[in-house]
Amino acid sequence: DVVMTQSPLSLPVTLGQPASISCRSSQSLVYSDGNTYLNWFQQRPGQSPRRLIYEVSYRDSGVPDRFSGSGSGTDFTLKISRVEAEDVGVYYCMQGTHWPPWTFGQGTKVEIK
Amino acid sequence: EVQLVESGGGLVQPGGSLRLSCAASGFTFSNNWVHWVRQAPGKGLVWVSRINNDGSSTSYADSVKGRFTISRDNAKNTLYLQMNSLRAEDTAVYYCVVSLHYWGQGTLVTVSS
């Protein structure tokens, strides 16, 4: 199984400042079709998860452009350019290249300092 | 608007069974793969099972293989998860997830004597 490792696991941030979350996979996430199936999800307190980013860098509809995804191979990053109060929650990366199983990272808890 | 409504959760004794349902609306259900993802209290997201568009292909996490069965009724726009031989470690909120994009609100399964 592909192991997804996120860092940090806890991220205190100041409102208006940038934030960055790293996600590393135990093997390359490039699929045979050339695409890389790496997703990012946000889970606000008390809510269901919501997908923010798919295929490394494509934002889902309605996702603010302060969220961006980047990376390749085994190293990926989610960046928030300027953190807002509504961004508090837990963020998960998830790979959909080598399945089954689809595997998630441990989650990174973003909180306001 | 995409809507996914899970039901069927509850308290069950170890060794017991439950059947979860997920009613879908607002999109063409039969065109999409659907997954079950679970989240134990205070823990991260774990993929459980997946079914393809027409129900001809399924996948399971090792932890539930042989005990859980995923199925769908495209005429009723409904996904199911039959859970047998339940264990305490199956206690979690179970989410129905379409195309790893749209999530339901989840249904809580508690396995306890």
Number of strands of chain A: 11
Query: Number of helical runs of chain A?
Result: 0
Please tell me how large the radius of gyration of chain A is: 13 Å
Largest sheet of chain B: 7 strands, mixed
Distance between the termini of chain B: 40 Å
Q: Can you walk through the features of this model?
A:
- Chain A is mainly beta and 113 residues long.
- Chain A is 0% helix and 48% strand.
- Chain A is globular and about 40 Å long.
- The N and C termini of chain A lie far apart (36 Å).
- Chain B is built from no helices and eleven strands.
- The radius of gyration of chain B is 13 Å and the shape is globular.
- The N and C termini of chain B lie far apart (40 Å).
- By secondary structure, chain B is mostly beta strands.
- In chain B, strands 2, 4, 5, 6, 9, 10 and 11 form a seven-stranded mixed sheet that branches.
- In chain B, strand 7 (68-73) and strand 8 (78-83) form a beta hairpin.
- Chain A binds chain B through residues 39, 41, 43, 48-51, 54, 60, 90, 92, 94, 96, 99-107, and chain B through 35, 37, 44-47, 50, 59-62, 95, 100-101, 103-106.
Task: Please describe the topology of this protein.
The complex is a heterodimer of chains A (113) and B (113).
Chain A: E1 4-7, E2 10-13, E3 19-25, E4 38-43, E5 50-54, E6 58-59, E7 67-72, E8 75-80, E9 89-95, E10 103-104, E11 108-112
Parallel strand pairs in A: 2-11
Antiparallel strand pairs in A: 1-3, 3-8, 4-5, 4-9, 5-6, 7-8, 9-10, 9-11
Chain B: E1 3-7, E2 10-12, E3 18-25, E4 34-39, E5 45-51, E6 58-60, E7 68-73, E8 78-83, E9 92-98, E10 102-103, E11 107-111
Parallel strand pairs in B: 2-11
Antiparallel strand pairs in B: 1-3, 3-8, 4-5, 4-9, 5-6, 7-8, 9-10, 9-11
